[in-house]
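Progress note, sequence design subtask.
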């Protein structure tokens, strides 16, 4: 076991404390879980050449053209998409992807800089060549 200190803004700390109490988890276990998620989100970018998975994007409906244009640009790795209207202004897009990791990273990076994107999540797994 390794102990360490972490500095965080007060509001983030209190929000985190409220949540872990609600889900009945202790702080150390919650931070361990967050670290594992962080590692899995970023390590795939370095360790594999071909991947597949899903990208989930929540965005303001006014940004639909940017998202649609990216889907056309990356049609070689996007196998399928599902579009949901969450409310009058927000949409959720689920992109099923498969291809070279460099290309997947490129798509994710371009989605992240779209003006109307509110949130992006992805799960990528290694595919055997």
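Output:
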């Amino acid at each position: 076991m390794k102990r360490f200190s972490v500095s965080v803004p007060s509001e983030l700390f209190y929000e985190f404390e409220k949540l872990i109490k609600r889900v009945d988890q202790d702080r150390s276990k919650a931070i361990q879980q967050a670290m594992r998620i962080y590692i899995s989100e970023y390590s795939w970018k370095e360790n594999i050449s071909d991947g597949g998975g899903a990208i989930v994007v929540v965005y303001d409906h006014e940004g639909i053209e940017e998202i649609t244009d990216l889907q056309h640009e990356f049609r070689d790795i996007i196998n399928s998409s599902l579009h949901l209207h969450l409310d009058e202004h927000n949409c959720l897009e689920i992109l099923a992807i498969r291809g070279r990791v460099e290309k997947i990273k490129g798509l994710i990076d371009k989605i992240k800089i779209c003006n109307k994107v509110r949130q992006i999540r992805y799960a990528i797994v290694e595919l055997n060549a």
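The chain has four helices and four strands. Work on this subtask will continue into the next period as scheduled.
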